[in-house]
Amino acid sequence: MGDSGLRERKKARTRETILREAFRLFRERGYAATTVEQIAEAAEISPATFFRYFPAKEHLVALDRFPPLVEALAAQPPGPPVTVLRGAFRTAFAALSAEEIAAGHAREVFAATVPELLVANLRRSPGLIREVCEVVAGRAGCAADDPRIRNAVGAVLGVVAMVWLAWAGDTGMDGPAEIDRALAHLESGLSL
Amino acid sequence: MGDSGLRERKKARTRETILREAFRLFRERGYAATTVEQIAEAAEISPATFFRYFPAKEHLVALDRFPPLVEALAAQPPGPPVTVLRGAFRTAFAALSAEEIAAGHAREVFAATVPELLVANLRRSPGLIREVCEVVAGRAGCAADDPRIRNAVGAVLGVVAMVWLAWAGDTGMDGPAEIDRALAHLESGLSL
DNA sequence: TCCGATATGAGAGTCAACTCTCATGTGAGA
DNA sequence: TCTCACATGAGAGTTGACTCTCATATCGGA
């Protein structure tokens, strides 16, 4: 039952191949213009097998592999919402840098056609947002449905989304650092 | 060539019928679960005709009919980004209240399944965002690609999005007023 | 080495968005 | 009233995501 057998390793390798080839194609011709059949062919599997690895094409661009932001949030000391969220992003990205960026995945994710990526992920985000609000409210000593919490979380997510978009268009940018700078700016009241 | 003929009036009526029936079905069974064929049947037109009115099912939920935010922005006096944007939202919603909310459209839009509505619209938003950034930069006396502008616009849009979501889930809420309150909170530095 | 569980491929099939063509009907202007 | 432009319906066709079934191949344990 361990995951060390040849079978498991083979599955993991197939999974990686699918992801790698899929993102390569997305980069070349865009998300919508890439068919599952093409991905399957590039990964040298049958289309049927593709769906045994991913329940839907959408799931390829899921940010499930994103660093556990909520976890990082829970580890933050109490403080005002924006400060707590900024710290959480820093923590989460520190973990990501070591693992995912270094592994070369992150670049592929960002290089993928961005609007579609956002679109596919937004469908899953309401739950995440609620969770974030709850933890932040706890750290700030407010109720989870306090408008001030909602506003702070919204502002942070908006700022991060904008940087994210800019990052996707400029692979030379140091994303995590830029996000931290932007959140510092927000923390200081968006001064001019 | 005027738009006062019987032909034009008929087309307008058909268009309204399609929208009304579509949103009714969306509300009843969700966006994804509603097929174009069902919409066409409810509106008493053929599926082919549906596509003569809307190039894609997605276009039904486009916020193209949203108040001209960019226009309202251009009418704002110079000032810091958040202040300018807050004023623009107020102006834009004032126009909307009289026309669209009263016409009963707004409620239908908000009552529609929210995730898919957001998803469909996000695809069209990059252009809007860039436009907003440019105007705001002009009003604040900065370059359009100034990170501070980007951050402010991101924060405002994030805050508005959160209120919007809450509004969709609580039709009793006074959306425009709540958005204005939220932006005032952001303007004052998200104080606790 | 043999057997059972499981991964895969092949291929047919479903479903829905969207396109195209062609025939018909109905306003608009002369 | 006549005629032309155009809106519509009918219906077939295309595409791509996703499902199902069944035969085959391969791994893992006995």
UniProtKB/TrEMBL annotation, chains A, B:
<dbReference type="Pfam" id="PF17754">
    <property type="entry name" value="TetR_C_14"/>
</dbReference>
<dbReference type="InterPro" id="IPR023772">
    <property type="entry name" value="DNA-bd_HTH_TetR-type_CS"/>
</dbReference>
<feature type="DNA-binding region" description="H-T-H motif">
    <location>
        <begin position="35"/>
        <end position="54"/>
    </location>
</feature>
<feature type="transmembrane region" description="Helical">
    <location>
        <begin position="149"/>
        <end position="167"/>
    </location>
</feature>
<keyword id="KW-0472">Membrane</keyword>
<keyword id="KW-0805">Transcription regulation</keyword>
<protein>
    <submittedName>
        <fullName>TetR family transcriptional regulator</fullName>
    </submittedName>
</protein>
<keyword id="KW-0238">DNA-binding</keyword>
<dbReference type="Pfam" id="PF00440">
    <property type="entry name" value="TetR_N"/>
</dbReference>
<feature type="domain" description="HTH tetR-type">
    <location>
        <begin position="12"/>
        <end position="72"/>
    </location>
</feature>
<keyword id="KW-0812">Transmembrane</keyword>
<dbReference type="InterPro" id="IPR001647">
    <property type="entry name" value="HTH_TetR"/>
</dbReference>
<dbReference type="InterPro" id="IPR041347">
    <property type="entry name" value="MftR_C"/>
</dbReference>
<dbReference type="InterPro" id="IPR009057">
    <property type="entry name" value="Homeodomain-like_sf"/>
</dbReference>
<dbReference type="InterPro" id="IPR050109">
    <property type="entry name" value="HTH-type_TetR-like_transc_reg"/>
</dbReference>
<keyword id="KW-1133">Transmembrane helix</keyword>
<keyword id="KW-0804">Transcription</keyword>
